[in-house]
Amino acid sequence: MKTRSALVMFLAFAGGSLRAADEPAKAPQVEQPNAPQFKSADEHWAHVEKLQKAGPKRAATRDEQLKLLMSWLGDQATSAASFATTYKEDPRMWKAVVLALRSDLQLRQIAGEQPRKQDHEAVEAILASPEAPEDVKAEAAFIGVMLRTEHFNPAEAESFEPFHKAAADYLRAYPTHAHANDVRDAQIQIIHSYDIPAHDTLLKALAESSDAAMAAAAKDLLAKRGRTAELKSKPVELKFTSSTGTEVDLAKLRGKVVLLDFWASWCAPCISEMPNVVSAYEKLRGKGFEVVGVSLDQDKATMEATMKKLNMIWPQSFEGAVWEGKIPKEFGITAIPATWLLDKKGMLRQTSLRGEALGAAVEKLLAE
Question: Which candidate, 123, 240, 248, 299, has a CA 20 to 30 Å from the CA of 107?
Answer without folding.
Answer: 299
